[in-house]
Amino acid sequence: xxxxxxxxxxxxxxxxxxxxxxxxxxxxxxxxxxxxxxxxxxxxxxxxxxxxxxxxxxxxxxxxxxxxxxxxxxxxxxxxxxxxxxxxxxxxxxxxxxxxxxxxxxxxxxxxxxxxxxxxxxxxxxxxxxxxxxxxxxxxxxx
Length: 143
What we know:
- By secondary structure, this protein is of the alpha+beta class.
- It has one domain (6-135): Pnp Oxidase, Chain A.
- 21% of the residues lie in helices and 36% in strands.
- The protein has a seven-stranded antiparallel beta sheet with strand order 2-1-5-6-7-4-3, sandwiched between helices.
- β1 and β2 form a beta hairpin.
- The longest helix is centred in the last third of the chain and has 13 residues, at 93-105.
């Protein structure tokens, strides 16, 4: 069973960037933008070894994500906040599938300096959602 409604999945899938928050060893929030894909109920993003976010996940795997859009006037804002746990994928079938999805959505991952996404060279962060709150998103009307 997936946590999200269809219209939330659509919004998450179409979005190009999310804000990813992890917790440092000193218990401070650390927030960075990441390009992501949605797959099989989870959210994934590639990163590099040696990043602060990876260090944070190893220390504390509790994370949060915001995917949103803001407009003037304020009444048209929409987004979703997701809380959950992160895992680090370094290889295997799931890694390969997600690397393929990331490269399809973000073609710049095919070549240097951002790609290719290869096992053992660039880990993938898997976000396993536990709680989500969305705003301004509406299901599509049936006609």
